[in-house]
Amino acid sequence: MSVNKTLLEAFKETPYKTNGHGSRNAAVLKEAFEHVASETESDMYGTGKVIEDFQTEMAEMLGKEASVFFPSGTMAQQIALRIWCDEKELKKAAYHPLSHLEIHEEDGIKELHGIETVLLADKDRVITLEDIQNMKEEVAVILLELPQREIGGQLPEFETLQSISKYCREKGIKLHLDGARLLEVLPYYRKSASEVCSLFDSVYISVYKGIGGIAGAVLAGGEEFIKKSKVWKRRHGGDLISLYPYIISADYYLDQRAGKMEQYYHNAVEFAHLYNECEKVSTLPEVPVSNMFHVHYAAAKETLEPILIDVYEKTGVGLSGYVRETGEASCYYEVSIGDLYDTIPKEKLKEAFTLLNENLKQI
Amino acid sequence: MSVNKTLLEAFKETPYKTNGHGSRNAAVLKEAFEHVASETESDMYGTGKVIEDFQTEMAEMLGKEASVFFPSGTMAQQIALRIWCDEKELKKAAYHPLSHLEIHEEDGIKELHGIETVLLADKDRVITLEDIQNMKEEVAVILLELPQREIGGQLPEFETLQSISKYCREKGIKLHLDGARLLEVLPYYRKSASEVCSLFDSVYISVYKGIGGIAGAVLAGGEEFIKKSKVWKRRHGGDLISLYPYIISADYYLDQRAGKMEQYYHNAVEFAHLYNECEKVSTLPEVPVSNMFHVHYAAAKETLEPILIDVYEKTGVGLSGYVRETGEASCYYEVSIGDLYDTIPKEKLKEAFTLLNENLKQI
After folding, report:
1. How many CB atoms lie within 10 A of CB A161?
2. Of A71, A76, A231, which has the smallest distance from its Cβ to B106's Cβ?
3. Distance between CA B149 and CA B247 in Å, rounded?
4. Dihedral sign from CA coordinates of A354, A355, A356, A358
5. DSSP-based three-state secondary structure for B143
6. What DSSP letter does each residue of B162-173 carry, written as one string?
7. Does A33 sit within 8 Å of B29, measured CB to CB?
8. pLDDT, averaged across chain A
9. What is the C-alpha to C-alpha distance for residues A318 and A308, in angstroms, rounded to an integer?
10. How far is B354 from chain A (nearest CA, A)?
């Protein structure tokens, strides 16, 4: 067992990586642009064929009147909440305690927009209708994240979403969808994107998660909402002269992968099962409802890392480049299934999990 | 004379365009990436070799401790002013009435950051030391734009900059440089970038003006300032998972064009002279001090447009794709000299200006 190599180094050297679509390297851009004509004109500050066509396509897919391409979801979602707060003249928004806005954005929503936030539900479960009905404060907008990424990608049942949507409409509360991984949950729900989005007043979708583009996000909603979002996009410094490197690659990989979400989902279910058969391992959720899940180990990070390195070096299968500590004797990492999973020979996977299980039994 | 064709259409068809580096099309990206290895790893949320190397290079060029790559100058500059305002616990910034922040950003500085702005100098001239000395209000920071783009790219003398810098330091006012076109003014000043930047506490430079990249900006300053700017970059939604499409192209075109700024400047002086020899035409400034100037016509937009179309169609020389009205019988457009100017045969230019002058004499 190599002791000098870090987990990340050992992982990078494996020929069989189980997660994602492949390296985030320049090849992603080069492939997307290989067949793009050199004369293809850049977008110009939000106008031009390349951005307008994609926005139209995305609005149609999401069943909304209009959409706008943003450099990031962070920007798109803060702006969505701001517009709904301004409309109601109430600077309060509610979301899950582990929402991206709460834990990954340096409090942009509060620092830039002065919006107070109300946290719904416990950290370890998804938001229910009851959480919303029992809210003590009035809010302008509620943000729901599907799937709830920080707890392994859990989902409420579709009927719960319907009842939340109905309740919010009755109470005059706007409902915004953090659909960073929206396409990834459609196979479980057995719904189209527009069927899910019809429950929400505004929707954000990422183009570099399951779709595997380079960066960027789409915000969709009604005409008036989108018009306002473009003004805020300019204010945020997101109305770049050229966003085409992101748009063209988003369009390219969306075409390639929108039809593969069912496959990613089924592979995630199969893969989680392999994990759950090992000692001291459990996945969250136990049976995935999208292409993602978290792998929890009842072992200390320092104990697990050499075990994983051993598996990587002996089998060539790379399970994760990092492990995150959750306690003295517990840790986890995230799995998102993409194109790579199906390129790994099944016997290789079996070999890796047999060794992983043996190693875990010995601790 | 074609009457059905718009100015922009006629301009697009000309083989000899006088301004800029060429079309903003996908070829710009494809050329920059042609020799980039596919394995080149993406930056990841502001970290990684591709972004860190470029930031180090730019900090060195600008003579500052550190720099950070931003998706836009709009974002970079609002953040710079915010940091200086927070430091002084005074939310007031001063700049020119035609500053980018005042007229092109939908009041982001006010709406997102709550910063009050003080307008210095008259619209039609650059800021002087006296304007600053006579300011009635206390401000945390002053922004100077070099060159002042909206008035044709005018510049204060370098000695004025030095005295403004000295005054601000004595008074504890931070000085920020809007150096969107900083490299473009160095030949006139006969100074290095770091010599100019040494007069300022923080500096922004664009990578898609004279440099001709795709989009993006660099903010440079002291270590502490840059550290804070990264937090605000995250809040603004500018800390993208991958900025490499912009960074790699910025680096590529900076290498190609940083040494050409002197040539662009001299060509601008020559070109402005051609304009000024025509009837009813004057350039602002009369003798350019960078690669840019404005061309003002003592003619109505509707009168001028068919005249320009005639020149474009008969000589193949394209002078501008638009004309902006400034009054009933006056209009203008902007010229920025880049790579294209030197590709036009001199006799073609002469032919175009002879015809332009003849056409203008007849109105």
Report:
1. 22
2. A231
3. 24
4. positive
5. strand
6. HHHHHHHHHHT-
7. yes
8. 97
9. 8
10. 32
Contacts of A27 in chain B (CB under 8 A): 38-39
Q: Name the amino acid, one letter, at B42.
A: S
Place of tokens 């900006």: B217
Q: What is the pLDDT of residue A1?
A: 47
Closest partner CB to B38 (pick from A27, A44, A240) = A27
Question: Rounded to the nearest 5°, which phi and psi values hold at A244?
Answer: -60, -30
- pLDDT band for A19, please (50, 70, 90 cuts): very high
Provide the pairing of β-strand A16-17 with A66-70: unpaired
CB contact under 8 A, B33 and A37: no
Please give the Cα distance from B195 to B175 (Å, whole number). 15
Answer yes or no: pTM beyond 0.90. Answer: yes
Our measurement of the distance from residue A147's CA atom to the centroid of its chain's CA atoms, rounded to an integer in Å, reads 7
**A163 CB-contact burial (10 Å; exposed 0-12 / middle 13-18 / buried 19+):** middle
Burial category of A87 from C-beta neighbours within 10 Å (exposed 0-12, middle 13-18, buried 19 and up): middle
d(CA B95, CA A199): 46
Residues 6+ apart with CB under 8 A from B159: none
**DSSP assignment of B110-134, as one string?**
HHTT--EEEE-S-TTS---HHHHHT
Tokens linked to A135: 């809210």
- Its ipTM equals 0.97
Where residue B97 falls among pLDDT bands split at 50, 70, 90? very high
Gap between the Cα atoms of B347 and A6, Å rounded: 66
Provide the pairing of β-strand B292-297 with B217-221: unpaired
Residues A44, A47, A51, A53: is their CA dihedral positive or negative? Answer: negative
CA distances in angstroms from A141 to A125, A158, A165, listed in the order given:
20, 20, 12
Residues of B in contact with A108 (CB under 8 A): 234-237
